[in-house]
Amino acid sequence: MFGKKAGKTPDFKKLEDLYYAAEDARKNAYAPYSDFRVGAALLVRPNEDSVLPINKMYTGVNIENASYSATLCAERVAFAKAISDGILNYDIGENPFVAIAVSAGDEEALPCGTCRQFMSEFAPEIIVVTKADNEIRIRNLKQLLPESFKLEKEDEIEEKAPEYKPFFESEIDK
Question: Which of 3.40.640.10, 3.40.50.280, 3.40.190.10, 3.40.140.10 is the CATH number of 4-173?
Fold first, then answer.
């Protein structure tokens, strides 16, 4: 269930604590239009040689806007805080983002499609923690988004691309 690249899997108690941190963060959500408050807590784990403290956590909340497309989801806010804090600039190993918990109170709050795609950019095997029916639920992002969109880098595209031949040299002209 947990990807090999994620390093050591956090124990259930740590994931449960992460969920309750998301639940606590939820109090700061700005949701005047939907009244659907969401909190997220993102667990970042550095590698052994990192200068970061072990198991740093970033929280996020949904921030609505009258122009709904300008609304920010809690998951993306947590990631943005970590990234703007420089997490990608440290020596943090291949996958510093270990787990994200999402809370919406009594309802289970799975990340929306946009958040799933956004998270796959940085942590395709991240653990997603939610709660439903008074039970902590644990999945990984690949279960929620099995075929994410990936934009290949130019050098990767060149390796796969067939050799280009101008039209006049093609078989059609012969």
Answer: 3.40.140.10
- pLDDT tens-digit map of 2-11: 333 334 556 8
SS3 of residue 12 by DSSP: helix
Residues 6+ apart with CB under 8 A from 104: 26, 36, 37, 38, 39
Q: Is 75 a catalytic residue?
A: yes
Instruction: Confirm if 39 and 27 have CB atoms less than 8 A apart.
Output: yes
Q: Is the dihedral of CA 29, 78, 126, 12 positive or negative?
A: negative
Query: For 96-146, what is each residue's pLDDT tens digit?
Result: 899 999 999 988 999 999 999 999 999 998 999 999 999 999 999 999 998
DSSP helix, strand, coil percent of the chain (3-state; round to 5) = 35, 20, 45
Of the candidates 75, 152, 159, 171, the residue annotated as catalytic is 75
Neighbours of 18 (CB within 10 A): 27
- Give CA–CA dist 95/34, Å, rounded: 34
Alpha carbons within 13 angstroms on the beta-carbon side of residue 51 total 6
